[in-house]
Amino acid sequence: MNSSKINKIHLYNTLTRKKEIFTPCEPGVVGLYSCGPTVYNYPHIGNYRAYIFADILKRTLRYGGYQVKHIMNLTDVDDKTIRESQKEGRTLKEFTEFYTEEFLKDIKSLNILEPDKFTKATDYINEMVEIIEKLLKKGHAYKSRDGSIYFDIHTDAEYGKLSGFSIASLKRNADKRLEIDEYDKENAQDFALWKAWDEKDGNVYWDADFGKGLPRTELALVRGRPGWHIECSAMSMANLGEQIDIHTGGVDNIFPHHENEMAQSEGATGKKFVKYWLHNEWVLVDHKKMAKSEKNFYILKDLLDKNIDPVVYRFWLLMAHYRTRINFVWEALLGAEIALKRLYGLYSELGAEVGKVSKAYQHKFKEFIGDDLDTPRALTVLWDVLKDETVSNADKKATVLDFDKVFGLGFVNSEKNKREEKIPEEISKLVVERDQARQNKDFQKSDELRKQINSLGYEVKDTPLGAEGF
Ligand code: AMP
Ligand code: ZN
Q1: How far apart are CA 300 and CA 36, in angstroms?
Q2: Which one of 32, 47, 285, 430 is most buried, counting C-beta atoms within 10 A?
């Protein structure tokens, strides 16, 4: 039996808007689908929050005793991929394969475990066509004048149940359809399942035969390409079945992407598509969402250029709950770097022997991580066990390695665990500042500084000659 089994894992379900006890469709086995990147550029570090969150979720489920099948898609055909590949004069395949490789390197450096399978949208065109045929047959979809096929949201009485969007106020307006995959909350309308070819698409098209779905009077063959939402429905159903346990993405995926995925999947199968919808909050910059369009983004290379290990970024994210927004500033990342090096340092002093996992600490860890993946509180347990003088070094080591199955901070990687002999400059500065505050009898400030030093993994010992960080 798995000794780290967690009795109850609570997860916040966007669909029901509450934390629920997780129970998969099939006992012990979890089908997990994560919306992956559009491979047209380097993802920014905000995007990586979505994949690190999915990784922590998967690791927690595995740690908790479940067998997890994880699928992540790679969107390799849409407006952006077509446009950018044309600009570079490369075929869509060449272009998207390059960015797929870059993505794989990035996730490795972030200690993200690869999904069991990456699915490329272009490998699932037939499955998409089949779903669209079913929707046509059932009257949920229609063909427009230019040949594109749309989902009629008015045929879905429950449309809006995920995002809370109400279609009651919307008037049917067939002429105001959008031509792109992206649109905002204000623009809820029938969405494209299949887009008829136009010259902007160049040589990117498939000749799809919707013969089984369309009345015989209509032309069944439509040269075109899929809409974005149908890609995820097809890939998740093909690999995980018509009903999946957990679907993840960032909060900006809730509407329209996930709302539409759900509408078309449930419209086609008549079954509940996803049991638990989980979404991570944003990484912000200057309190605005980090986004390519805002030009306020960083990529992993920006970290590497500053000699910051991507795992530091992972650690920084884990210090916040995945459902809270976090504001990215370099100082915060440098603080995380100091704290992580401190952890590696403490770990490296434990010696070679691996003892037994501390049950008491493991109990606390499971309680926190099982409470909707509360990584900030779970990290406090890691610090506590490392500092507990009643636990042997060998047992500490076993406990840290056990927790790291979920954190993925790479404690086993000995290269990283070299002791930082010197007290980092930032800590020394804080210690001096605190000393000054104490001398000025500003105990509130000195207390705040002590807390700040502690949060970076150091403690101050007051000696007759002043304070000393260690
Ligand atoms: P995209 O490539 O835009 O589809 O985004 C890929 C993933 O990153 C999606 O799950 C988004 O919801 C997520 N995402 C995008 N921007 C951010 C951000 N600033 N912070 C956190 N997640 C984000
Ligand atoms: Zn998706």
Answers
A1: 17
A2: 32
- 36 in contact with ligand 1, CB cutoff 6 A: no
Instruction: Measure 258 CA to ligand 2 centroid, in angstroms.
Output: 7
Total-model pTM = 0.87
Percent of the chain, pLDDT > 70? 90
Most confident of 79-83, 394-398, 442-446: 394-398
Looking at the fold, whether 260 and 401 belong to one and the same domain comes out as: no
- Separation of CA 56 and ligand 2 centre (Å): 19
Angle between helices 228-240 and 259-269 (to 10 degrees): 50
Q: Which domain holds residue 14?
A: 10-280
257 assigned ligand-binding residue:
yes
> Which ligand is nearest the CA of 71, by number?
2
Specify if 429 maps to a domain: yes
Which residue, judged by its Cα, is nearest atom 8 of ligand 1?
A: 47
Same domain, 110 and 253: yes
Verify that 272 and 333 share a domain, yes or no.
no
Local structure of 149: helix, strand or coil = strand
In whole angstroms, give the CA distance from residue 129 to residue 210: 7
Mark which of 280, 299, 333 sits at the end of a domain. 280
Are 342 and 365 part of one and the same domain? yes
167, 316: one domain = no
**How does pLDDT run across 129-171, given as a tens digit for each residue?**
999 999 999 999 988 888 899 999 989 999 999 998 877 655 5
Number of neighbouring beta carbons within 10 Å of residue 339: 22
**What H or E segment, with its residue span, contains residue 24?**
none
2 in a structural domain: no
> Which residue bears the tokens 């067998």?
67
How many whole angstroms separate alpha carbon 312 and alpha carbon 331? 12
Same domain, yes or no: 384 and 276? no
The token duo for 383 is 């610090």
Amino acid at 356: K
DSSP H helices, 89-220, are: 92-109, 125-137
Of 76-85, 198-207, 222-231, 419-428, the least confident = 419-428
Of 221, 252, 280, which one is at a domain's C-terminal end? 280
User: Does residue 415 have a pLDDT over 60?
Assistant: no
Q: Is 47 in the pocket of ligand 1 (CB under 6 A)?
A: yes
- Please tell me whether residues 110 and 54 are part of one structural domain: yes
Residues 351 and 440 both lie in one domain: no
Domain count, the chain: 3
User: Do residues 355 and 419 make contact, with C-beta atoms less than 8 angstroms apart?
Assistant: no
Residues 141, 152 contacting (CB under 8 angstroms)? yes
Give the span between the Cα atoms of 336 and 331, in whole angstroms.
9
Ordered DSSP codes for 428-445: HHHHHHHHHHHHTT-HHH
In a domain, 3, yes or no: no
